Amino acid sequence: MKTAKTPQEVHAVLAAAFNTKNLDVIMNVYDANGIIFPEPRKEVSGQSQFVEAVKSICAVPGVMEIKTVYCLQSGDVAVGRSEWSITDKGKTQVAAKGIELMKQQPDGSWKIIIDHAFGAEANLVA
Domains of the chain (ranges plus CATH)? Predict the structure, then answer.
């Protein structure tokens, strides 16, 4: 399984993982003890709920693409801003602007600990 060696690689590794539709490959990009927002204003944490949230995202047909808007690193933590979409047969199924908090792991790889997939949307209030 490919892991991100730098925080700047996390978005590309995440998109490639989602495109496999393989839960183990996707979960390798995340710290499952973290937080994910599979929908606007829907915070999910805890291993079983996290896995269910990832499964629901995988159920969306199509190919995920993630553009890194920026990635700022300080030591073993980084914050990224993304623009992402899932497109199927030329039709956008879902698209949003996200914010991701990443942490370097003991093995040197980087994982997402908070994935606020809709966190940079202009109309979203926390």
Answer: 7-116 (3.10.450.50)
Question: What average pLDDT does the segment 96-122 reach?
Answer: 94
Nearest CA to 13 out of 100, 122, 121 is that of: 100
What is the enclosing helix (H) or strand (E) of 52? helix 47-58
Beta strands in 1-126 (DSSP E): 30-39, 42-45, 63-74, 77-88, 91-104, 110-116
Three-state secondary-structure class, residue 4: strand
Tokens of 88: 């199927």
Cβ contacts of 35 within 8 Å, gap of 6 or more: 43, 44, 45, 113, 114, 115, 116
pLDDT (average), residues 11-26 = 94
- pLDDT band of residue 124 (cuts 50, 70, 90) is low
- What is the tens place of the pLDDT at every residue in 23-32? 999 999 999 8
